[in-house]
C-alpha cells in the first residue's frame, strides 16, 4: 500500500535535510585555526580602534587588536613601511584588512586547510565588496612597495620583512595597476574582487557600522547555504536510489 511507504520516505527526506543543515552550521560563526585566533568567537568589549566593529562577536582578543594597529606588529613582525612612510589613508585599509582577518567569525565558507608552520587554515577567494577594494586601491596608489605578493618572498634575515634582492620600490599603482590586482594578488588570492556592492548581502564588507549590525553574517549564511545546496545531490543520491527501487512496487500495488 502506498501509505505504508510514507514513513520511510519522510524519514529519508528528514535525514537528507539534517545532513545539509549540519553542513551549513559548520561554516557559520567559526574561527580559523591560525596563529593568533581564538578557538571560538565571543564578545570582546575592549577591542581597539578599527577592530571595534567586531566586539560583540570576535575571533581576536583585545591584545591582538592593539598589536594590529602597530606599524611593525609583534604578531608577525611584518612592516608595512618597507619602502618608506605609508600614507595614513592607505595604512587604515591594511589595519582594517588585519582586523577582518583576525577578528571575523564570518569567513567559514572560504576557510581552507593549509600546511604552514604558523597556521593550519586560511581563507581563499573571499568576495570583497567592490567599493572596499576600489577605495583601498585609490587610497594606496601613491604609497610605495616593492612586491605584488606580500604573503611570501620577503627577506627575513633582519627579523622583519625587507624587500628581496633585485626588487625596487615603486608606487602601488605600478605594482598593482588595478583594484583587482591589489585585492586579489596582495595575499595570494585571499580576496576576490566581487561585482556586488556593499549592503547587497552577497559580498564581505571590510568596513561596516556595528550599530547597524554585522552585514557579513548574512553574507556567510548565503554562501554557506549555496555551498550546502551544491553538495546536496550527493547526499540525496541514496534517497533517490531507494525511491527508484521501490517506485515500481508502489505503482503495482
TrEMBL record:
GO cellular component: external side of plasma membrane
An example Gene Ontology molecular-function term: signaling receptor activity
GO biological process: cell adhesion; fusion of sperm to egg plasma membrane involved in single fertilization; sperm-egg recognition
The Folate receptor-like domain, residue ranges: 30-205
InterPro entries listed in its UniProt record: Folate_rcpt, Folate_rcpt-like
This protein's UniProt keywords: Disulfide bond, Receptor, Signal
Signal peptide: 1-21
One Pfam family hit: Folate_rec
PANTHER family, per the entry: FOLATE RECEPTOR, FOLATE RECEPTOR BETA
Family label: Belongs to the folate receptor family.
Stated name of the protein: Folate receptor beta
Originating organism: Delphinapterus leucas (Beluga whale)
